[in-house]
Amino acid sequence: MTLAAIEPARFRQVLGHFATGVTIVTTLDGDTPAGFACQSFAALSLDPPLVLFCPARHSRTWPVIERSGRFAVNVLAEGQHRLSTVFGARGADKFATVEWEPAPSGSPVLEDALTWVDCAIETVFEAGDHFVVVGRVTALGEASNGRPLLFYRGQYTGAAPVKADVLSWAGPDDWV
Question: For the Flavin reductase like domain, which residue ranges apply (predicted)?
Answer without folding.
Answer: 15-158
